[in-house]
Each structure stands twice: as C-alpha cells, then as structure tokens.
Amino acid sequence: MRRLFSLLLLSVACLAVQAQDLRKFQWFNQPDSSVVQRSSMTMMVPAHCDYWRISHYGFTVDDAPFYYGVWGGEFEAKVKISGDYKTRFDQACLMVRIDKENYLKAGIEYVDGKYNISCVVTHHTSDWSVMALDKPVDHIWIKAVRRLDAIEIFYSFDDVNYVMMRNCWMADNTPVQVGVAAASPDGNGFKARFDNFEVRHLADQRRLEWLKNHQ
After folding, report:
1. What is the pLDDT of residue 206?
2. Burial grade of 166 (CB within 10 A; 0-12, 13-18, 19 or more)
3. Among 138, 156, 167, 199, which is least packed, fewest CB within 10 Å?
C-alpha cells in the first residue's frame, strides 16, 4: 500500500510538467478572430458581449467568447493574461464553468480608466469582487485551484508570488469547463492574449486520506 501511495504521488508530479494543447479545445461563442498555438492564443473580442446573471443590473447575458477543455476531479489551472483594454468593463480572464448558472471568471477588468483585478462568481445570480491597481500592468497571472467543493483563485505579476483573491463554492464531483474568456460589454471589442495556459491534475484529497489511513 505504501508503494501504491508513492506511485500515485509520482504520477501526479509527472503530470505537473505537461502543458495542455489549446489547439484541441473548443469554443463556446466564437470571437471575431483568433490565433491558437499550443499553449497560447490571441482573440479579437467582439463588441457588446459578456457573462452575467440577473443581480444588480437586472439582465442576463451569456454571449462572450470562451475557449475551453473539460476536466473532472481536482486540479490547478493557470494562465498569463494581457489585453489592449479600451472601454469600461473590457475584461480578459480565466474561466471555470459548469453551465449558464454556475461559473466563475477572474482576471483583469478595465473600469473607469483603471486596471482592476476582478472576479465574478455566479450561482444562479452573479456577484462581483474587484480590486483597483495603482497603475496599468502589462500582464497578470491567474491561478485556480479546485479542491473538493471549493475553488481558490490567486493572482500574480511574476508567476512566483501568488496572492489569494477569492475562495468560492463549486459543485464537487462534477466535470467543469476550464479555459479563457474575454468580454467587452460596453465597447466595440479589443485584443486579448493568453499565454502559458496549463492545467495539472491534483490527486483527490479523499483518496489520499484513505491511502494514508490504510497503509
């Protein structure tokens, strides 16, 4: 049993160095144009599109481009995000989605002339948390860690030092769509870029606990 436990940890470590091939992903709403490479992609975001449900504004929209793959279980996803933001609410983000009523998106959002670290979590209705930056940034790293029934969201400017910005509920033992999205609710669109996209599997915590107790 101890050997099995060691092999499990080794297999997870091996998976950690494997980046995903974005060319195998699929679109939910396509952008005006896009260029997709192995771990990077650029999109021209169309005008007047977004993800939001009901709260505060009184409307629901689900029409922004989202490029994704499907994962089950526990994982860590991260991506480097940059964009030529122009108009209020222009945004580029990492997105984790079950369906139209359950998703999160986290990244940079341009609001009132400032770059903001932004996160929207939706469970039937949407909420929005935002933190204004002192100055524009060339890029930001966003990381999502899914453990059991929760997802922790982190941001970084160097892919070394990460700061947690949000912890939210997401249904356990449910496949999710993981990928990149961008929106321009008030504007005429802009160019968004995503680099070094990666998802790595994390061994299920319940299984690890069981193995630990039954060595």
Report:
1. 87
2. middle
3. 138
